[in-house]
Amino acid sequence: MSSGRSVDDKISEELKSLSLRGPAGGSGRGGGILLEEEDEAIRFANVRKKDFKLWERVKGRMINILDGLELHTSVFSAAEQRRIVDCVYDFQEKGRKGKLRERTYLEPRKWMRGKGRVTIQFGCCYNYALDRNGNPPGIIRDEVVDPIPPLLKQMIKRMVAWHVLPPSCIPNSCIVNIYDKDVCISPHIDHHDFVRPFCTVSFLSECNIVFGTQFKTNGPGDFSGSATIPLSLGSVLVLNGNSADVAKHSVPIVPTRRISITFRKMDDSKIPYDFIPDPDLQNLRPLSLRGQNHPNILPLQQDQQDEPPKNAQHSQKVQQAQKAQQAQKVLQSLALQRPMQLSEDDFLPLSSNTTVQFHRK
Ligand SMILES: O=C(O)CCC(=O)C(=O)O
């Protein structure tokens, strides 16, 4: 029985659904579907993952306190970052005008250096500290905030499809953080009303995130821990295991405005009473790469960057040819994978992984 759609049509649809471009295109690149597919495939192939190691003695045992931490770079392009930031600013304007549900938008007073992080909460209302109604820190189940907006849902779909987040832990809430100059987030462990892993995506300006079991305060809002990790624009930092539950993390006062979006899945027993699961976020699947020679396994880009520059025109051509080859391989792997199978093994780690080892001073 034929569905009347070719494999190519299905691939086009899938790649389009992963794209953060609007329905009418809008990437500014012109070109037809094929170019867009290749573009998407090349982008997926260029995602890089870093793991981290920092051994510390905790309760008498040496452990890697950064176990479970992953930094995926180049997940969102510059154009996508601009769209997402514009969307955040639209919400900020609505929040300031009182057009969002009551506790969706919070803009605390900047009463001292470090303080004043603006938050926009979607999916659930998270209470950072005991509030004036006596609610303890955690999800307030009888409070309603706005649902996750469509563009942010697209981000979730991208992260699951591109193996950044596991399909077993699809976020159903998120918090946008707007840090103006000299604003920070203090060292903390994310509340267990949210399950692991969770992740945070970086926009507008690069900054450092610090991890540690102990922190030194250098001044108001300025903390140092035992590991400092620079967060590049469009990157996704995934926290799981010890990095989420043993080490604390903090973004010390930033030198210039920065936005981050933290995506988290709520513990089932903590979901707000009036929460309606979003049909768009059910049964998301990572692209299955089983048995395929996924281009991420070839550290092509990395090797090239390490080589001394040759004839510029020649190396540009070589790069283009290699990218086309990579795109072709991803498209082939997509074509061969139908129907998508889902199992634990499908969540293959993306390759060209790097492990960053921190040494204690
Ligand atoms: O802004 C960041 O990168 C970290 C945010 C964070 O730690 C949080 O939202 O709990």
From TrEMBL:
<dbReference type="Pfam" id="PF13532">
    <property type="entry name" value="2OG-FeII_Oxy_2"/>
</dbReference>
<dbReference type="GO" id="GO:0003729">
    <property type="term" value="F:mRNA binding"/>
</dbReference>
<dbReference type="GO" id="GO:0032451">
    <property type="term" value="F:demethylase activity"/>
</dbReference>
<dbReference type="GO" id="GO:0006402">
    <property type="term" value="P:mRNA catabolic process"/>
</dbReference>
<dbReference type="InterPro" id="IPR005123">
    <property type="entry name" value="Oxoglu/Fe-dep_dioxygenase_dom"/>
</dbReference>
<feature type="domain" description="Fe2OG dioxygenase">
    <location>
        <begin position="170"/>
        <end position="267"/>
    </location>
</feature>
<feature type="region of interest" description="Disordered">
    <location>
        <begin position="300"/>
        <end position="324"/>
    </location>
</feature>
<dbReference type="InterPro" id="IPR044842">
    <property type="entry name" value="ALKBH9B/ALKBH10B-like"/>
</dbReference>
<dbReference type="InterPro" id="IPR037151">
    <property type="entry name" value="AlkB-like_sf"/>
</dbReference>
<feature type="compositionally biased region" description="Low complexity">
    <location>
        <begin position="312"/>
        <end position="324"/>
    </location>
</feature>
<dbReference type="InterPro" id="IPR027450">
    <property type="entry name" value="AlkB-like"/>
</dbReference>
<protein>
    <recommendedName>
        <fullName>Fe2OG dioxygenase domain-containing protein</fullName>
    </recommendedName>
</protein>
<comment type="similarity">
    <text>Belongs to the alkB family.</text>
</comment>
